[in-house]
Amino acid sequence: MENRQETGLIVRPEEAEYVTLPHRGGFRLLADAGDTGGALGANHLALGEGADGARPHYHALSTELFYVLDGRVEFLVGEERVSVGQGGMVVVPPKVAHAFGAAAGCTAELLAVLTPGVDRFGYFRALGRIQHGLDSFDSLLPEQARYDVHFLEAAAWRPARTT
């Protein structure tokens, strides 16, 4: 990865760190805030069939953009639940609750961009450990302000599950 603030950021596929998730999913870490002078953070997320992507949360400082590269994703944005397929986009402004996951019977791939950026690669690594049972979700709770990920009650989010 070349980080040249004056000329841009170039991330070749083989240079991006990959954090595995269960069910053939994973994060490809493309750009952290420190790589872009704080402008943005970006990752490519692959979700296995019917897999949950994120429980309800909000970002106090940043807008998050999701572009569906493949498959179908079920989003909860505020009070609205919507299914978005390949080529669709969802933009969530600061302080708006949201959650998402692959739709039932579908896999999904998304490009997620957070702007302004927050250094969150550590957050994605922690999620990988949690998903593989190596750490507990509660270990993220003290880090909410650091990563600008503020978790909410999950009762409103019931992602479609496959059996």
In short:
9% of the residues lie in helices and 44% in strands.
Shape: globular
Extended strand count: 12
Low-confidence stretches: none
Total helix count? 2
Structural summary, described in words:
This protein is mainly β. It has helices spanning 121-131, 144-147; strands spanning 2-4, 8-10, 17-21, 25-31, 41-47, 52-58, 63-77, 80-85, 89-92, 98-102, 108-115, 150-151. The strands form two sheets. Strands 3, 4, 5, 6, 7, 8, 9, 10, 11 and 12 form a ten-stranded antiparallel sheet that branches. A two-stranded antiparallel sheet has the order 1-2. The longest helix is centred in the C-terminal third of the chain and has 11 residues, at 121-131. The protein is globular and about 45 Å long. The model has no long low-confidence stretch (mean pLDDT 91).
